[in-house]
Design brief:
Layout lengths: L3 E7 L6 H9 L6 E6 L6 H9 L6 E5 L6 H13 L5 E4 L10 H10 L5 E5 L7 E2 L3 H18 L11 E4 H6 L11 H12 L4 E5 L2 E2 L10 H19 L6
Parallel strand pairs: 1-2, 1-4, 2-3, 5-8, 6-9
Antiparallel strand pairs: 4-7, 5-7
């Protein structure tokens, strides 16, 4: 029985979605996939529906009404997974910036090791990023250093979005109380797992920037992460932070 599901949010990923699905399903360990599509104008959801006949009971699709944000896409996926019997629930991008082969390493860190959360980390063994301009590498690296300093978390890649959660972690976190919807969502989820004293492990991976499709990064997403982290930490100090 398959005990792991990979949640992949999509918005205009028609160029990547078939390849990423087939790559995950070609792995030696079995995974299910849940695509959470935000009404992509390019027909991403229609492509997934076509593939469902090829991968029945393995490939699932949730269609949403519009572009509602990365955080809400994952929360939708988490709730969907928790309604079923999955013990290991993954986050992964559709654009191959996360190598599907690393899913097995993240799985083993939780299933065979003692970790509750396994992070595919770009920075735990240096800087393992390919095809990013130096300005973006520095922005991402300093953002993680900043978050680590403010929150006190011993995590090198605090903004990483390639993650395996044990079921218990997501059951303990009140998903309805998540405040951030952009990339700061990734920081908030790690911070809540940290406050709940779950064991978090960083697994070194190589992050490769997308070669197909367009990035969803924006200045608003960055400012949410920078300023939201301070508020999040202060609230946790004064016990007004809901986990």
């Amino acid at each position: 029985m398959v005990d792991a599901v990979v949640i992949i949010p999509t918005y205009n990923e028609i160029e990547n979605v078939e390849r990423i699905v087939k790559n995950v399903f070609s792995l030696q360990r079995g995974f299910h996939i849940l695509i959470v599509d935000d009404n992509s104008p390019d027909g991403t959801a229609a492509e997934v529906k076509k593939m469902q006949s090829e991968f029945p009971e393995r490939l699932f699709l949730v269609e949403r009404e519009g572009k509602l944000g990365l955080g809400t896409a994952y929360i939708t996926g988490f709730k969907w997974a928790l309604e079923r019997s999955y013990e290991f629930i993954f986050e992964m991008d559709a654009d191959f910036s996360h190598n599907p082969n690393d899913l097995i390493r993240l799985y083993n860190a939780c299933a065979k090791g003692s970790s509750d959360v396994a992070i595919g980390s770009r920075y735990v063994t240096g800087v393992n990023v390919v095809n990013w301009p130096m300005s973006r590498v520095l922005l991402s690296w300093f953002a993680s250093r900043y978050v680590r300093f403010i929150t006190g978390m011993d995590i090198h890649d605090t903004t990483a979005g390639f993650i395996c959660y044990k079921r218990e972690v997501l059951q303990r976190i009140n998903l309805d109380k998540i405040k951030f919807m952009g990339y700061a969502f990734q920081i908030e989820m790690k911070f809540k797992a940290y406050l709940l004293k779950f064991k978090i492990k960083e697994v070194p991976v190589i992050f490769t920037d997308r070669t197909r499709g367009n990035s969803k990064m924006s200045k608003g997403i960055i400012s949410e992460a920078v300023f939201g982290v301070i508020t999040m930490k202060l609230k946790s100090l004064f016990k007004s932070y809901e986990i």
